[in-house]
């Protein structure tokens, strides 16, 4: 039971700092007039997705890094995940991203 409680608190810790990172990115976008309002659903979803990923690697991460580094990693991941989730939220944008990757891959293979 003790291990379950520790894992729940670890996930809450990770989710909280990912949420703070995503929220601060959205707040910055709102203040800079890139968006008209705060997108709370995108904040919650992007925080949840990245939190699950970080939690999956948390045992490996905590064996090598301290809690301060994990906190910074969670905050930064929250920033990045919100930006990706807000920018590539529809299929058309995601297809453009894949096409850019293919162009870059083809460009890097060309002989000079």
- The count of helical stretches stands at 5
Order of secondary-structure elements: HHHHH
Shape annotation:
globular
Q: Quick one: biggest sheet?
A: none
- Count of folded domains: 1
Taking pLDDT < 50 over at least 5 consecutive residues as the criterion, the unreliable ranges are none
Explain what you see.
With about 110 residues, the chain is mainly alpha-helical. It has one domain. Helices cover about 85% and strands about 0% of the residues. The protein contains five helices and no strands. Helix 2 (about 40-55) crosses helix 4 (about 65-85). The radius of gyration is 17 Å and the shape is globular. The termini are far apart. The relative contact order is 0.14. The mean pLDDT is about 85.
Keywords:
112 residues, 5 helices, 84% helix, mainly alpha, globular, single chain
Q: How would you summarize what this structure contains?
A:
The protein is an all-alpha fold and 112 residues long. It has 5 helices and no strands.
Topology, please?
Blueprint: H1 2-31, H2 40-56, H3 58-64, H4 67-87, H5 91-109
Helix pairs in contact: 1-2, 1-4, 2-4
């Amino acid at each position: 039971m003790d291990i379950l409680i520790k894992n729940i608190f670890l996930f809450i810790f990770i989710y909280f700092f990912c949420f703070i990172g995503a929220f601060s990115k959205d707040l910055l976008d709102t203040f800079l007039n890139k968006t008209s309002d705060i997108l709370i659903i995108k904040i919650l979803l992007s925080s949840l997705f990245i939190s699950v990923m970080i939690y999956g690697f948390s045992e490996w991460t905590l064996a090598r890094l301290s809690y301060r580094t994990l906190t910074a990693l969670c905050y930064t991941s929250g920033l990045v995940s919100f930006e990706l989730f807000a920018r590539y939220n529809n299929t058309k944008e995601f297809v453009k991203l894949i096409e850019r990757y293919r162009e870059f891959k083809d460009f890097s293979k060309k002989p000079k």
